[in-house]
Amino acid sequence: MQIVRALLTRLATTLVTLLGAAIIVFVVIRVVPGNPIAMMLPPGATEADIERLKTLYGLDKSIPEQFWIWIVNVVQGDFGTSITLRQPVFDLVIGRLPATLELSLMALLIAVLIGGTAALTATLYRDTKIEGGIDVAGGVALSLPDFLWGLALILVLGVLWPLFHISGRVSPSLGFDFQSNFFLLEALLRFRFDVVFDLLGHMLLPAFALAIPLAAIILQLLKQSLKECMHDDYITLARTKGYSETSIITRDALPNAILPTLTLIGVQFTFLIGGTVIIERLFSYEGLGNMAIDAVINRDLPLIQGIVLVFALLFTLVNLLVDMTYAALNPRLRHA
Amino acid sequence: MSYLSIQDLSVRLRNGLPLLRKVSLDVKAGEVRALVGESGAGKSMIGKAVLGILPRAVRLTGGKILLDGEDLLALPPKTRRQRIGAKAALIPQDPLTALNPSRRIGPQITDRLVDILGWKRPEAEARALELLEEVHIQSPGRVMKSYPHELSGGMRQRILIASAFAAEPKLIIADEPTTALDVTVQKQILKLIREMQERHQTALLFVTHDLGVVSKISQSLSVLYAGKVIEDTDVRAFFDAPRHAYSKALLAATPKYTDPDGSLMPVPDNIIAAVEREVAAFDAQMNE
Ligand SMILES: Nc1ncnc2c1ncn2[C@@H]1O[C@H](COP(=O)(O)OP(=O)(O)OP(=O)(O)O)[C@@H](O)[C@H]1O
Ligand SMILES: [Mg+2]
After folding, report:
1. Does the beta carbon of B159 lie under 8 angstroms from any beta carbon of chain A?
2. Predicted complex: ipTM over 0.85
3. Chain B: nearest CA to A134, how far in angstroms?
4. CATH superfamily for domain B2-287
5. Topology, domain A97-334
6. Structure confidence by residue, pLDDT tens digits, B9-51
């Protein structure tokens, strides 16, 4: 009963959030200057041409009316047609979403691995020069935002030592016939490690750019929680049982220290997804964020709306996932 | 034959301030020794030194700790850790914080058996069930699957006692194991520790500042003042006629059972001054 109610509440808040995001974007992109019709028509088009196109795209109606039409269609699964690309918005967004998902999940994985390892190492060597060194590295990682890390990585690992590709998602010369848009996953499942290698060559730099600041944040919070746990009595008791410092940190301290970090990762991961917009642009990576920028430049209203809705959905999903993991990991909540 | 023999153990703060001053004490196999002294005397520090859990702020500057005839301090760290885990155990002071909140009870009892002593898991679990019954816990199967926060303080202390006896260690250090509990529970836990100690014939170093408890549980005792053992005797002799003036005052300060509400006399100033002089003289001699 309780679970059902919790789920319903959750669903309701999710819907309200999505609706709110949709309304805000819908209104904002219509009141800012610039309109899609002007962009589509050649110079010298007549007033009549403009009116005709406006009617065609339903832009002659009032904003509330437009919104009502749009939302009714969305509920029926029709997200409209992109003005510039002349394809269904739904197909466009679904086509690009896997690229962005693969990139952000890869970035998250890198951030968790690096940040987590650094926090554990710093705890093991606490109050020594090693901890100091790790702290300094964390501070440096946080001193630049993700897109500047992107530029730095392009300059160093793309230009100075061209070890990585700095543009695109996959080398066209590979001629690999993808059946889905989850390129990396598909290449892995088909054991095409040459393709995997090429994909990683494209994906790692943007993923690292996104991951570096997050890794530093994970390092700082997790290290602090771990160090606090190390003073707890159950840690001392585990020591008397004969456990090594390493296994005490990973086995006894980590499960107790991880919850605050987990919550933080959830929040920060939504920021990271937001960060893909600029990073994808920087690396000409064919994801949702890159498409979003084009859509905004071209005032492609239906496409912008579709993309924003997907981003908002992603954010709420991430939050839901964090809450569920939190409940699963915390025995005190599990039995409450 | 002493199972635990501490010889001239010295522990200092990193800045050189002495916390333990050449402490020597023996616990014979199967014997209960009480360790008494006021707060800050260094009672817990002795236990921590034996179990290898000294805080980072202090260091061991001299002495020997023989466990079962083997000098722990001469062993490489890993061997020492495992030796302590196999032969000694701690019953901690606060049962509310000594169990890991995110792990179930079962693994917290069996972990030492499986990970350090190499038992098979089913055997370790059977052993844990047996021990939980021994410490009078009802439905031990359910308790094994519980998390610490689902259990009362008294239950958790019983679990910690069971866990301490799991590997059949021949030395147990109990650091004020009842002070964090309700008065009614205190008596039961004390009785349980004595019962377990007798059944398993374990040497027990029992840290307390309650002389009333000492007479009930132990055969011998060491009185500690400012990290220095000022009296080491058997319990009968101590209660009949303590040798040191400080011990006498300590005994006088303890309410009698016959008169539990009797006024508690503080240790007189002149006696504190005398024992302080003794400690200072000892330090001066050390620094020569
Ligand atoms: N982590 C630590 N860092 C520095 N000094 C400490 C630390 N722990 C204890 N001490 C000091 O060591 C001395 C002995 O402390 P200890 O805990 O052994 O006293 P105790 O006899 O057990 O007292 P109590 O009856 O209050 O438990 C005290 O002066 C205390 O201030
Ligand atoms: Mg103490």
Report:
1. no
2. yes
3. 21
4. P-loop containing nucleotide triphosphate hydrolases (3.40.50.300)
5. MetI-like fold (1.10.3720)
6. 999 999 889 999 999 999 999 999 999 988 889 999 999 999 9
